[in-house]
Specification:
This protein is mainly alpha-helical. It has nine helices and five strands, in the order E-E-E-H-H-H-H-H-H-E-E-H-H-H. Helix 1 runs antiparallel to helix 6.
Length: 266
């Protein structure tokens, strides 16, 4: 027996005009949890940012996620469709957010904020990085509820029959990603954030950790139909993870270099 997916994408309705979708609600919950977590990090002995910083900073982060995630999806995954249907770009409640686009959007927002407040960009990304997996977790739960981005056909006992996936059981790859990109990566980064690690370590760990987790799950997930398997073996998601691994390695190298410079000044 396999699990039959029968979730409605609609969480609730208020009258005849307001409909709240689970996917959008997951983003609200994710931002709220990320905000709470960031405020908690400001209470640590080695904190470099304050609660007041968080209030201002999260406005930038939210805009970076929403604008970067949506336009990243449009550009990376379905530019042809959206050129023909430009009004559909604003329909984010139907799904269609790119992590890599959101990642670039947040990096840009953090860069602007760091320049405005004259603080270290890397220390800022280290501060925000542990909050990101919380958003990834809820985002993937939203994908699962929507019945989208499902996995390959499978006969494992936990396989799911998705209405849009044909009458075949499939890997619930959205939940795999929620567990790896979300919970597992969060726990790792949370442990690092509680310690006073070298500048760049947390950001580097996030980049490599996410890239490895996403690339692994891609082996169980149906690739985007407009691309399929590129060169017959790799997906667009895996290709977009390669620069993240490179950036992570560079950050580990720089973290060691920065620490050496600090020790020489002592």
């Amino acid at each position: 027996m396999y699990y039959q997916h029968d979730f409605s994408p609609i969480a609730f309705s208020l009258g005849s005009y307001i409909t709240v979708h689970w996917y959008g609600l997951m983003y609200v919950i994710a931002f709220f949890c990320g905000w709470l977590l960031a405020r908690y990090f400001t209470t640590l002995p080695h904190a470099k940012f304050t609660k007041n910083d968080v209030e201002d900073l999260f406005t930038y982060v939210i805009l970076g996620v929403l604008l970067g995630g949506r336009f990243g999806y449009v550009l990376f995954y379905d530019i042809t469709y959206y050129l023909a249907n430009p009004l559909d770009i604003i329909k984010i409640w139907q799904g269609g957010m790119s992590f890599h686009g959101g990642f670039l959007g947040v990096l840009t927002a953090l860069f602007i904020w760091s320049k405005k407040h004259h603080c270290s960009y890397i220390e800022l990304t280290d501060f925000i990085a542990p909050c990101v997996p919380i958003g990834l977790f809820f985002g993937r739960i939203g994908n699962f509820i929507n019945g989208e981005l499902w996995g390959l056909e499978s006969n494992v006992s936990w396989a799911v029959l998705f209405p849009s996936g044909g009458n075949v059981p499939r890997h619930p790859s959205q939940l795999y990603e929620a567990g790896l990109e979300g919970l597992a990566l969060f726990l790792l980064l949370f442990i690092l954030a509680k310690k006073e690690v070298n500048k760049g370590i947390i950001s580097g760990t996030f980049c490599i950790g996410y890239a490895l987790a996403r690339s692994f799950v891609e082996f169980y997930r149906v690739p985007d139909p407009q691309y399929g398997y590129i060169f017959n073996f790799i997906t667009m998601g895996q290709i977009l993870c390669l620069p993240m691994i490179f950036v992570g390695i560079v950050l580990f190298y720089l973290a060691k270099k920065w620490q050496t410079q600090i020790e020489k000044k002592r």
